[in-house]
Amino acid sequence: MTLKIGVIGTGMIGRDHTRRIQQVLAGVEVTALSDVNLDSARAVQADLCPDAQVFETGQDLIASDTVDAVLVCSWGATHEEYVLAAIAAGKPCFCEKPLATTAEGAKRIVDAEVAHGSRLVQVGFMRRYDVGYVALKKVVDSQIGAPIMVHAAHRNPTVPEQYVTPMAIHDTLIHEIDVFRWLLDDDYVSARVTFPRTCAASHAKLRDPQIVTLKTAKGTVINTEIFVNCKYGYDIQCQVVGEEGIASLPEPIAITKRLNATLQNEILTDWKDRFVDSYDVELTDFIKAATAGTAAGPSSWDGYMAAVTSDACVTAQEDEGALVEISYPARPALYN
Amino acid sequence: MTLKIGVIGTGMIGRDHTRRIQQVLAGVEVTALSDVNLDSARAVQADLCPDAQVFETGQDLIASDTVDAVLVCSWGATHEEYVLAAIAAGKPCFCEKPLATTAEGAKRIVDAEVAHGSRLVQVGFMRRYDVGYVALKKVVDSQIGAPIMVHAAHRNPTVPEQYVTPMAIHDTLIHEIDVFRWLLDDDYVSARVTFPRTCAASHAKLRDPQIVTLKTAKGTVINTEIFVNCKYGYDIQCQVVGEEGIASLPEPIAITKRLNATLQNEILTDWKDRFVDSYDVELTDFIKAATAGTAAGPSSWDGYMAAVTSDACVTAQEDEGALVEISYPARPALYN
Amino acid sequence: MTLKIGVIGTGMIGRDHTRRIQQVLAGVEVTALSDVNLDSARAVQADLCPDAQVFETGQDLIASDTVDAVLVCSWGATHEEYVLAAIAAGKPCFCEKPLATTAEGAKRIVDAEVAHGSRLVQVGFMRRYDVGYVALKKVVDSQIGAPIMVHAAHRNPTVPEQYVTPMAIHDTLIHEIDVFRWLLDDDYVSARVTFPRTCAASHAKLRDPQIVTLKTAKGTVINTEIFVNCKYGYDIQCQVVGEEGIASLPEPIAITKRLNATLQNEILTDWKDRFVDSYDVELTDFIKAATAGTAAGPSSWDGYMAAVTSDACVTAQEDEGALVEISYPARPALYN
Amino acid sequence: MTLKIGVIGTGMIGRDHTRRIQQVLAGVEVTALSDVNLDSARAVQADLCPDAQVFETGQDLIASDTVDAVLVCSWGATHEEYVLAAIAAGKPCFCEKPLATTAEGAKRIVDAEVAHGSRLVQVGFMRRYDVGYVALKKVVDSQIGAPIMVHAAHRNPTVPEQYVTPMAIHDTLIHEIDVFRWLLDDDYVSARVTFPRTCAASHAKLRDPQIVTLKTAKGTVINTEIFVNCKYGYDIQCQVVGEEGIASLPEPIAITKRLNATLQNEILTDWKDRFVDSYDVELTDFIKAATAGTAAGPSSWDGYMAAVTSDACVTAQEDEGALVEISYPARPALYN
């Protein structure tokens, strides 16, 4: 039995997921495409799935009988309406981040899914599927005692001019926000931001680097350095300190060389290479659950919690050094 | 278009490849199965591919119109006849190692494929598809100057009683024999074996460890330690020394822990875990080529060369310290 | 010419420095000893320096013509008076930490030394002489651009019952406080303390772990984890993030082993082993300067700044999350 | 009590040992110097030990009442006569390598020392005092089971034109020859040399790299790569494979940097930096034993065994691939 997928949004990530479904993964095919730019949808159709149908709107695509499940890869501001439509249609839906552009929007999705009564939505937090984080979680859960602290870093060699201070939260830290909730099986209660002097390579509208301190309900303190003009590479670091010991996220596989008086490994410079393998795994998880009419992995609730936490972190950026409390309603039983 | 695969031999590896084709990889399905034990074939059919047909013999399977390409996963002694039959039928054929149980048998396959005029056979040397070796080859080809030496090790924690000295070549070193030819783009000219004292954990019919020294046509010297009672883990090491520098095969991804006064990573103990990801990649390569009616990756010639080299290494084992020359006919143009 | 040293305080560290002077280092001898417990002084005399004279008081020792330079290794509360006496006598003086038990006391020493007009005092901050920190400083000064952040940790496997929360500053962080000023060539302007939940292994009067955030005059932010019940080992970590790259303090030399399915190095568990080699180097530096009638290395000013910073950190502990400003008078020219 | 040392030969190493004795080590002074070039001796006297006496000949120096113990740092061809004279005078003698330029010469020293009846000679094999090798030996002796194989490398970035093939044994491998006997507590029984193609950077009179295979009396096989035009650095590698696991010589302390898309450590390029700390330790050992009228550490017998083994390795170079047996008389009881 082959799962029939409709892809809304055929930009970079939509095209890449379409390729993945058509050429890499078993038991699935793209039967429908739509994009605000119809030519884009038709180009993907021509290149990757000639048998798919191109729809004028995402809503039409969701409604079509030829679609079992939906991938929302369109512009962020449109995510909420498509996800709500998919829930209304009772169709499993994979939504790229953000689930919605506001916490309120994400909450409306949670409410709709709860009203539906079973999970239909997976959010595209791919790090949970990365082989390194999966191995780290296994060790954190079983070998180092209860976590007490996390030391993390999210570094990018450079960012464009339009990347302003809050984007360090919404576009960058958002991955840590989700993955640490999952890694620690915990929720956040407060955020604080500390700014060192801004680095010389930054620009007027960006304070970079910054250190975000999150505290969890269980009392774990997480310090994450965000440094998006670090120059040397794209580098994701995470070390969990537990009652009995410490575990660290592994470095990506690299060849150790002895060359030019230097013992050396390459460090990646492009974020797209860092978690590239995890996209296959997250979609495999989606396909498996969607074939059974449901969803697994990062949920609407996770998307909502990420939105609430991001908002608190941005508030903390605006009031450097202040402790910003993070509050949210009780977790619906659907997400336990 | 979906490639229809017939699987001959439904033991451990045949079953696993069937699962891979049915559940993991795109554009392919298992349409036919056979096994000397028909119950085994029917069990795999029931579990993994209910629409597939079970054939009484591999020859019938190969001949069937429902089969575009063949996977030979049966007992080693039967490989030659099935591969020859697939070539005779003009169907792409993936053959698990060994290609044949003798160099002469492998040579007959080479001759048949050359007579056919285009490649149809891929041999299951999966290491060429391992992410570590692929990265190593890229560095060896471009960054460390021409290779001069290789230091390698193939270690296994323990082996059963029936594992005798020549199996260290046929079952163990065989992987290094193929992967170093590919890594160095070179051929072997001689072999020598040195035996240290046999370790206490070995048994009467096995001299373990041993060091096999291979020299190549370009003058590179490769020392490979084979130690199959090393106790501590399954460990594959490879370091290439070039004119300008040195490159090493990476360790498998592992979590670094600080625990119990020890900075530590796990080492694998089961060989099946070491190259598990490369099976998906080698079959993907086979599927892509077979869909186009041909074969890529490790060829019949590579299988033949591995057989010739293995024979020389066993001779070298029998005459410790002696230099055994390795000779073979000119490489047919088909394999350039 | 041999430098004649008087050692005040013959407990563990005083005895060890006496051994070092008598048996390891060139150009120096212990000619005088004193201790509040005369039997202790006589025992060290008998064991290590039979030709030395035992004095009833530190003041007598300092005044003696047989003493060119003084080592103050007595109980911390007595340091100030002995150092002041040595300055009054115009004799070079090496003082184990703390220089004084209060910032005011340390300031009195600074004032006395400034009044004297040249340096006479070296404080026993031995980390500045550790081969790892020295190598790190060289890289920080020349290769990674201006520092922006430091991520550090000071971990101890366990502490006794009498170790209470402020001791995490006075006895533990004190080393980081001094060594980071030197490493960064910078001064502190504020401190903040964050407490994760206290670990299960701690006791009622100790909040452990804690994270101390120091900000410097140049805008560098330093996060140091202090965790003195970490169980797994004595572990000092320090990573400096600069404009161009990152440099890390090396791990102590250790043998990498492959054993029991584990790739592993030993981690030290006893703090006394971690910087043991640096004691020889710091005393060599003292001897060289003292032979010329002066002092080098960590100064009275450094001891005073450490005291001021420690006081601020303890205040920050008492008011978790609050930003505590650190202020101090202008640096006297003597210390530039 | 101060040990009075006479230094014969005031070239680079003689001057450096004099500096070490005068300025670094306790309980010792240089009281006498001699050199075939008297101006050299006088220059060292002026710079480092104005109270020392300059002797016209090494023999006069040895005979002087002002000399308790002798350091032989002169040209290799003169070592034998000075060591024999020191033994005749009953004075402890530290001799830089080689102990003698022939195995016969070394044997004459052994015989003289045995006739004397107690140890007087220490040979300057400093690696036995290197912190890395000492730590490795401790692990090899206690944690990895009985050794079975050693994989080693001795690499130099480049060598001058006058460095010809046999010097790879006499000047380079000589260190491994001694240190592995000590590390394994074993003796050699055979040598074999394998030459890969010579690297492009070598010259007409040097076959480089080469692999020397030594087998020991206990059956351990040691493969050492010698590569003196490796370009990338001065690099000493040693991995011991035992019955239970593997232990490796640590890399020298280095700062790990993240810089320019590269995770990197410096590799040394100058051999003089690699074991620099071990010279202090070996002389400390000599001073301690000599003060007691005897010698410790590497013995005349070790120097003789190194000479015998070197000769066998050079013979093995001249007959590539041949197994050259290594024989020697029974070890005198003095050296047990």
Descriptive account of the structure:
Helix content of chain A is 37%, strand content 24%. In chain A, a hairpin with a 2-residue loop joins strand 13 and strand 14. Chain A starts with a strand and ends in an 11-residue tail after the last strand. The first copy, chain A, is globular. By secondary structure, chain A is an alpha/beta fold. In chain A, helix 7 (167-184) crosses helix 10. The B-C interface holds B 157, 232-233, 235, 251, 254, 258-269 and C 157, 232-233, 235, 251, 254, 258-269. Strand 13 of chain C pairs antiparallel with strand 12 (245-248) of chain D, so a sheet runs across the interface.
Secondary structure layout plus pairing:
4 copies of one chain form a homotetramer.
Chain A: E1 3-8, H1 12-23, E2 28-34, H2 38-48, E3 53-55, H3 58-63, E4 69-72, H4 79-89, E5 93-95, H5 103-116, E6 121-123, H6 131-142, E7 147-155, H7 167-184, E8 188-194, E9 210-216, E10 221-227, E11 235-242, E12 245-248, E13 256-259, E14 262-266, H8 271-274, H9 276-291, H10 300-318, E15 324-325
Parallel strand pairs in A: 1-2, 1-4, 2-3, 4-5, 5-6, 7-10
Antiparallel strand pairs in A: 7-11, 8-9, 8-15, 9-10, 11-12, 13-14
Helix pairs in contact in A: 4-5, 5-10, 7-10
Number of DSSP E strands of chain A: 15
Shape of chain A: globular
Query: CATH class of the largest domain in chain A, please?
Result: Alpha Beta
Describe the main β-sheet of chain A briefly.
Answer: 7 strands, mixed
Distance between the termini of chain A: 30 Å
Count of runs of 4 or more consecutive helical residues of chain A: 10
Runs of chain A in which pLDDT lies below 50 for 5 or more consecutive residues are none
Q: Indicate the percent of residues in helices of chain A.
A: 25-40%
| CATH architecture type of the largest domain in chain A | 2-Layer Sandwich
Chain oligomer state:
homotetramer
Report the structural category of chain A. alpha/beta
| Radius of gyration computed on alpha carbons of chain A | 20 Å
Q: Into how many domains do the coordinates of chain A divide?
A: 2
Average pLDDT of chain A, rounded to a whole number, is 97
Count interface residues per chain for the largest interface: A-C, 35 and 35 residues
Strand order of the largest sheet of chain A: 12-11-7-10-9-8-15
CATH topology of the largest domain in chain A: Dihydrodipicolinate Reductase, domain 2
Percentage of β-strand residues of chain A: 15-25%
Give the SSE order of chain A as H and E letters: EHEHEHEHEHEHEHEEEEEEEHHHE
The name of the CATH superfamily of the largest domain in chain A reads Dihydrodipicolinate Reductase, domain 2
